[in-house]
Amino acid sequence: MAVGDRDQDGDMAAALLVLLGFTLLGIETGSGAESNISTSIRDEGSRTRLTCTLNSSDTHVLGHRWMKGDRVLQEDSVPDLTTEYEVDPEERSGQYSCTFLSEPAGRTARVNVNGPPKVEAMASSVLGIEGERAVLVCKSESFPPVTEWTWYKITEASNQVLNNKSENTFVVSLGTKTELHKQELDLKADAGEYACYGTNTEGVGHALITLSLRSRLAALWPFLGILTEVVVMVIVIFAFEKCQKPEVVLGEEDTGSAPPKSSRSHTIDKDKRNAS
Ligand SMILES: *[C@@H]1O[C@H](CO)[C@@H](O)[C@H](O)[C@H]1NC(C)=O
Ligand SMILES: *[C@@H]1O[C@H](CO)[C@@H](O)[C@H](O)[C@H]1NC(C)=O
Ligand SMILES: *[C@@H]1O[C@H](CO)[C@@H](O)[C@H](O)[C@H]1NC(C)=O
């Protein structure tokens, strides 16, 4: 209060002192070594609520950020020492993090929600061209991470496992992602429905992908279309030029025949004059 009063009086030294005080305070809160974040997961019926609580009020909280993987889920600028996030029941399991935003650095804690993998296809339908290659991709952000990925080609008889031993096929898998590479696509053998299965200690999840194929010839149709258009246009232009040429010649004949006409009329005039 006394500092404020002096500041109002316009005492420059006091103002500097206040500034210095704030700077020192900033350094003190910046360390943040004395605070810790406690986390909790509560299941309420079908809902799951995550809570993060900072035990120390030394830190000046500017807001909160919730993330899953590298995706920001929620952000606010509330200065509270506790923050909550309600998990999407559709994709419950995963590695979450809460950050208490502050200067110069925020404080982050991880919250792992265990569950069976939720597997998603990057694209649920893929269009390939005969003889080319196609890549089918599935991913899962679940926790614990997927430890085993399996690909199947779905057929009426039985589902056929696809791996590096399969013809023109290889599989590249990481914890969060798997890719099925099909090379030299065959119109009959490769078109159809595929499934990717992800397994972790909590269970199994899967997604379906439809691979449609176009024949090489079908891929050529647009080019044939353009080619036809060009040929037709060339014919039309050629025909048009051919029709125009005689007219041009006629025009030249016209101008060529004009002088004799005028001279003839001139001579007629002369004759008329002569006659009169
Ligand atoms: C953090 O603080 C909470 C209570 O404020 C305590 O229960 C917990 O054990 C502390 N965690 C660590 C790692 O010190
Ligand atoms: C917060 O937790 C840390 C680590 O356990 C501890 O050192 C600190 O004293 C706690 N602060 C308060 C205000 O309880
Ligand atoms: C299959 O082949 C790909 C590419 O050659 C390789 O990255 C992958 O590790 C192989 N997978 C297995 C299970 O050997």
**Which sequence of SSEs, written as H and E, runs from N to C?**
HHEEEEEEEEEEEEEEHEEH
From the structure provided, what is the oligomeric state, counting identical versus distinct chains?
A: single chain
Strand content: 35-45%
Give me the number of helical elements.
4
What shape does the CA trace take?
A: elongated
Main sheet characteristics: 5 strands, mixed
Distance between the termini: 129 Å
The spatial strand order of the largest sheet comes to 9-16-15-11-12
Structural class: alpha+beta
Q: Percentage of helical residues?
A: 25-40%
| Radius of gyration computed on alpha carbons | 40 Å
Would you give an account of this structure?
- It is a single chain.
- 33% of the residues lie in helices and 38% in strands.
- It is an alpha+beta fold.
- The chain has a 5-stranded mixed beta sheet with strand order 9-16-15-11-12. A 4-stranded antiparallel beta sheet has the order 4-3-6-7, with no helix packed on it.
- Strand 1 and strand 2 form a beta hairpin.
- The protein is elongated, with a radius of gyration of 40 Å.
- The site of one 2-acetamido-2-deoxy-beta-D-glucopyranose (NAG) has 4 residues, from strand 13.
